[in-house]
Structures are given as structure tokens and as C-alpha cells.
Amino acid sequence: MKIMQMAFMIVAVMFFFVLVGLFFLGIWVGDIQGGAASLQRDKAISSLRVIADMPELNYDSSESMTLDEDKLRIMTGDFSAAYEVFWPVASVKVYLVYPAFDEVKKCPGFNCNYYEIYDSGQSNVKEYSSYVSICKNMKELGGEPRCEIGKLVVGVKIHEEQ
Amino acid sequence: MKKGQFNFAWLFAIIVGGAILFLAIFGAMNTGDTQVYGSNTEIGKSISIITDPLQAGFSEGSFGQIAFRQETKIRNICFTGGFGKNDIAVATETGMNGEWGDFGGATSVYNKYIFSSEKNTGKDYYVFSKPFDFPYKVSDLIFLTSENYCFMDAPDEIADEVLSFGMPNVGVSEYDISIGKNVGCDFPEAVNVCFGQGSDCDISVYGSCLSKCDSVYDEGIVVKKGEDMNYVGSLMYAAIFSDENIYECNVERLMYRAGKIGEMFVEKADLMDARGCNTNLKGDLFVWSGLVGNATTEDLMNLRPLGDTLERRNDMELCGLW
Q1: DSSP for residue A38
Q2: How many DSSP H helices and E strands does chain B contain?
């Protein structure tokens, strides 16, 4: 009888420690997931400037947050295939925000307003954005740029539970 | 129960109790190791993020400091092949007796060029960034170091530039004839970087630019640990602050990217021609991107005159490709 009591007691104590262990493991794993999500968010926000200033998209290396319309067109084509692994984020898109539009029209195309530079195809992507200038050199302006207002949108993969 | 005799209950309790204690201690140690691994991985990832705002961007350069609470090792492994990558991993000191935890999971950085030693140890790390143009902007170079550097008899333009960033780990010293030795660097321990011939040099920089240069040090050779590293422009700092294999690897990555950007300018030339913003650079850029895309450090000095010509011609054009 005493052996049985002791066996049950030991099993109960073990069960208790397992539960306590699972409790702390849950907190720790949650903390890691939160840390990873927070790092991803920080990365996306800091990536906005990094991506806008990349020579592959930037209009003039002496000006920050200014994109080159010609480069955007090139990067929407086959050329961007070489850059698949290069992007530090899950997606990179650029919208023309003025004049305002009702329908998104993918560039290149007539009256288009949306450049899809890169899309990893991941689901659960959270997007962060920043306003940018989109410029191109014009002969009529003596080689000076004509600029429009745009919005650079980068996406980061978020955890399933969020 | 007779004296000195264990009954089954005691034996059972001791064996199972021992097993529980063993499992608990084993589990705690494993969890601790995993926690250190997780924390080191997080630090590695953080370093790649922290260096984002430290990139020079459109400025001449920028400087930042990363301070850790304990001694930290940063491992930088460079991979070539296409855009290549830098794998950054971190290990921290875990105990009071100088024990090191395992390196955390490596964070792969594809869009940055981190120049450092392969293994760095320290509590305070200094990050310094300079843009690299060849002849158009290719990327920002990031220099990561925990050591002190003393630039001995550096030419004025380099001394002024280094001092303007206010980097606490880099000093400039000049030879004082009256006392017969170099003065200006107050570090107890520092890597001595000599410009030209000198004594007590850990690293020597020999400039070899003779025509169309702002300084003789616009191109040349950095000699470190008996190895020669060719450089042009801001790659001089890259050669000073990094190991030879990291330098060679990152330069190959940079050249590949320079080639890709050159290809992009060829396509941009077509788009500009279509709206009357003509350019005569297309043919030469096509050749340039082919040459530079597969270049190594050995080719840098031969390519530079061609790059300078492209830059001058681009500056003279009405629209300009970059």
C-alpha cells in the first residue's frame, strides 16, 4: 500500500514539474516569437530607407528617398529575377499616389500607378510604407527631373498567430 | 525493518528521486544553452538591423558604436557566388570564468558588405560606413571593428576625414622631430597603420595614383600580415579594417553588383533614348558591366581609368544616366 502511495506521489510530483516546465517554456517561446516579430518590424522600418537608397532604385545618390521611374520600370521586368535573394523583406511595391486613383493598374502600362518590384509570394505579410519622390530626367526640362509623389511599401512576414 | 537494511519503498524513492533530479538538472542546463543560443541569434539579427541606419546613404560617411554588456565575439563569414552574402554570428561570455557560449544561428546579409576580421572579440564595437562609387554608386561599405587604430603620418585629406567622423577608436599621429617619435595616439594598444614607409607598422598603405587623382592614395596597395590587397577609392578602409579573405570576397560581391547596376543602366539608356534623352554611353556601359561583373581585387586598378572616363562622359551628358 505504502509503495503504491509513494509511486502515485512521485508521479504527481513529476507531473507537477512537467507542468511548471511547460509553463515557463510557453512564456519563453512566446518571448522568442515576440522578439522575432519585433526584429522583423524593426528590419522592415529600417529597410524602407535602405531600399529607397539602393542604387538599383534610387534616382540620385545625393538625394535620399527619391526613386528613379526608369529603374522602377526595369525592376518590374525580367531584370529583377536576379535580385530574388537580395531583398531583406518579403515584398517591395511602389504606388503613385497623385493623382488619386480608384483602381490599381500594374506598370508598365497606360495610366499605370503600381510597380511590383518584388513579391516572395509569402502569406501573412504585414506592410510598412513611406512617401517617396519618383523622378525621371526630361529632355524638355533640359535634362532636369520631373517628379511625382509615390509611396514605397515593404512587407514583412508575420507569425501565423498574430 | 532491520537496521542497515533498505526496504523496497526506500530503494524505489531513491532511484526515482535521483532520476527526477537528474532530468531536472539536465533539462535546466539544456534550456540554459538553448536560451544562450536564442539570445546570441537575436543579437546577430540585431546587428544586421542596427547597421541599417549606419549606412552612409547620401552622406560622405557615418559612424556608430555598438556596446554590449559583456565580452562578445562576432564571427563574419563571407560567401561569393552571385550577390554573395555575409553570415554574421554572435557568441557571448556565459560565466564568470571566461567561458564562451556557442555561436548563435548565423544571420545572412545579402544586401550589405561588412568588412571586418573573421573573428572579432570585444565589448564595444565601432561601425563606420563609406559609400563606394565605381564609377556610379554601388553600395555602402560597412566596417566593423573592436580594435583601436592609429593612422601614422596619414595625408591631410585622410587624417581630416577620419577625424571628422569622431571615431573614438581611430587616432591620427604625426612624427614629431623634436622628440623623435610619433605623437597624437593615446591608446594603450592599437593597430599601427602607416602611410608609406614607416617603422613599427602593423599595416602599410602604399598609394600609387599618379594621374587624374585627388590624392596619391586614391588607389594603391594595403599590406597586412604580409598579404597585398589592391584597392581603389574607399576600399582602402575596407582593406585596413578587414581580413584578406573577407576583403577579397566582399570585393567580388561588390564587383558583381556593379556589373548588375551597369546592366541596368544599359536598359535605362534605352528608356531614356525613347523619350529623346539620348545617351552615348550605352555601348561602353555594356562592355564595362561585362568586365566589372567578374572582376576581382587584381582587376581594380586596371578598371579604374575606364570607370573615370565613363564618369566624365556621363557628367557631360544633358540627361545623364546616374
Answers
A1: H
A2: 6, 13
Of the candidates A10, A56, A143, which has its C-beta nearest B16's C-beta?
A10
Interface of A with B in 100-139 (CB under 8 A): 137-139
Q: First vs last Cα of chain B: how many Å apart?
A: 96
- Annotated domain spans of chain A: 10-157
Question: At residue B24, what is the residue type?
Answer: A
Contact B115, B127 (CB under 8 A): no
Q: What is the layout of strands, in order, in the sheet containing A66-68? A: A66-68, A125-137, A145-157, A91-96, A114-119
Residues A104-114: pLDDT tens digits? Answer: 899 888 888 99
Nearest CA distance, B10 vs chain A (angstrom): 9
A108 preceded by cis ω (within 30°)?
yes
Put simply, whether B79 touches A (Cβ < 8 Å) is no
Predicted pLDDT of residue B48: 72
**Given an 8 Å threshold on Cβ–Cβ distance, is B58 in contact with A13?**
no
Contacts of A70 in chain B (CB under 8 A): 268, 271-272
Instruction: Give this complex's ipTM.
Output: 0.80
Write down the pLDDT at residue B150.
Answer: 94
Is residue B273 scored above 70 in pLDDT?
A: yes
| B187 in Cβ contact with B172 (< 8 Å) | no
| Cα–Cα distance for residue pair B170/A26, rounded to 1 Å | 46
